[in-house]
Write a structure and sequence with these properties.
Length: 503
């Protein structure tokens, strides 16, 4: 073979390899697009299906995938779940699902499948593929059951059960009420405080355990007062002798490697106190863990009122002022109740609304002294009651501006010095205080002894503090000057038609 023929053969071989590589990557791309389109169409079609439940609590990474899809979706609070969904909670994650009055809690590293047991009818089946879940049943009987490797667990109305599945086998505990386990055509009744364990072959196991009846699995508590919250633990002893003593260990660390609080020499109850946060507990005898779980204590006291600032005076001309009510966040709260009244007793409410965010804008308050307060609202999984904040108050006055004054003057806010912000004793009405109107055109007076200039900027659609700084100063980096001059608590919260003082 000539040298020319050898070169032609080499070129042909490289050309074939290039064609093969090109075809391979094109086919991979087409396959990926097909799978993505199929999954997207399934997601779109799912919008026409009736959801079977809704996520009410979510911590960290919780995902959902329909059984014939390939992509996992991230789930959030108020996300719907559908029949055929696979739902999983990753490590250090958890979720609670509300299904027709039933509450199902998923612990970390847990995977379940939700589906109707007979097509689109019949009881809803919760197949626990791996991990740990708890079920607080509603008022309806046999409308839902847990599938544990072929065994069906039915919780009677009002019952609370804890179920676990792994390669080693299954375990069911009845924390409250009654349940039944159906396996191989035979049913076994499970009473409150009982436990049933089977290995991977289906043989029943006799293992020592402590079935905790209180607090229930993944319990939540609301602490609305100062100090620590006392919580009582109550359990039944399973396969334990009377002289075996139990210790309760509590930690803020799930591995119990540090800061462990221990209560020893226990029979079947204990009492411990908790601050706010997520706490992990376990009952042990020697080195054997008899039972474990976690509970959450949330701060249910009233949040801090941020705006309008207490003891401030809001003066306006023309239209009623546009006020931004803002308060601090309470971890775990799903809503906030806001009340505004013309009296400290809040008998006659001008505003009574629930808000999912920590602020809202209102422009319906006229002249007078107004009192307001906020109370956090938590999911029904939390036990206890939240409380209102101490009330805040502010005064609204209508002013008349001389004709020679700037037409840009719309509203003035007189904010007291931080040290002067205090509650007025209930025996001294706010109206009795004399608050003189200072002859100035500033929109916000950060301090009564500070005299600003006459420069005012009215916020327009699309404005940010950085963009305003560019307009008035020629430099975006000077936006903190606007924050300081206007006593702005959150730089991200400015609104259209708000008047800003430009120093």
């Amino acid at each position: 073979m000539s040298e020319t023929s050898e070169k032609s053969q080499v070129v042909r071989n490289f050309w074939l390899i290039d064609i093969f590589v090109l075809v391979f990557f094109l086919s991979t791309a087409v396959t990926g697009l097909y799978l993505f389109r199929r999954d997207l169409m399934k997601t779109i079609e799912a919008r026409d299906e009736e959801p079977v439940g809704i996520i009410i609590i979510r911590n960290n990474v919780v995902q959902r995938r329909h059984e014939d899809r390939v992509i996992w979706d991230r789930l959030y609070v108020d996300s719907f779940v559908y029949s055929g969904d696979l739902v999983r909670a990753a490590e250090i994650s958890s979720a609670s699902i509300h299904i027709d009055e039933n509450k199902i809690s998923l612990n970390e590293n847990t995977l379940i499948r939700i589906q109707y047991s007979m097509g689109k009818t019949g009881p809803l089946e919760i197949e626990l593929k791996e991990g740990n879940i708890s079920l607080a049943s509603g008022t309806k009987e046999n409308n839902l059951f847990i599938n544990l490797m072929g065994s069906k667990v039915y919780a009677l109305p009002g019952a609370v059960i804890d179920a676990e599945a792994s390669q080693e086998g299954i375990k069911v505990q009845v924390n409250e009420g009654k349940a039944s386990l159906v396996s191989g055509g035979q049913a076994k009744e499970l009473s409150e405080g009982s436990m049933l364990a089977k290995d991977s072959k289906g043989d029943e196991l006799l293992i020592p355990a402590a079935v905790v009846k209180r607090p229930v699995p993944n319990a939540g508590f609301i602490k609305s007062h100062a100090g620590l919250l006392p919580i009582t633990f109550l359990w039944t002893r399973v396969n334990l002798s009377d002289n075996e003593r139990i210790k309760l260990e509590i930690s803020g660390d799930r591995s119990f490697s540090q800061d462990v609080y221990t209560v020893e020499d226990l029979g079947n109850r204990a009492r411990a106190v908790f601050d706010t946060g997520v706490w992990y507990w376990r009952l042990c005898t020697g080195e054997t863990v008899l039972g474990a779980g976690q509970l959450t204590v949330v701060d249910g006291s009233g949040p801090e009122l941020l705006s309008p600032v207490t003891d401030s005076v809001i003066r306006y001309k023309g239209n009623l002022p546009q006020l931004r009510f803002q308060w601090s966040k309470r971890t775990g709260a799903s809503q906030y109740i806001v009340e505004v009244s013309d009296s400290q007793e809040f008998h006659n409410l001008k505003i009574n609304r629930q808000s999912a965010s920590t602020s809202f804008i209102y422009s319906g308050l006229g002249e007078g002294v107004w009192y307001w307060r906020v109370k956090p609202v938590f999911s029904s999984i939390y036990e206890g009651s939240a409380s209102f904040s101490d009330f805040g108050f502010f005064k609204i006055e209508e002013i008349s501006v001389p004709r020679e004054s700037s037409a840009a003057v719309i509203m003035e806010i007189d904010v007291p010095e931080p040290s002067a912000v205090k509650k007025i004793p209930s025996v001294i009405p706010l109206e009795s205080q004399s608050i003189p109107l200072e002859p100035q055109t500033a929109v916000i007076t950060p301090a009564k002894n500070k005299t600003p200039s006459r420069n005012v900027y009215i916020v327009r659609p699309g404005d940010t503090l950085a963009r305003i700084a560019v307009k008035v100063y020629g430099s975006a980096v000077r936006w903190p000057e606007l924050v300081e001059a206007n006593n702005i608590i959150n730089p991200d919260l400015i609104y259209i038609d708000q008047a800003l003082f430009i120093p």
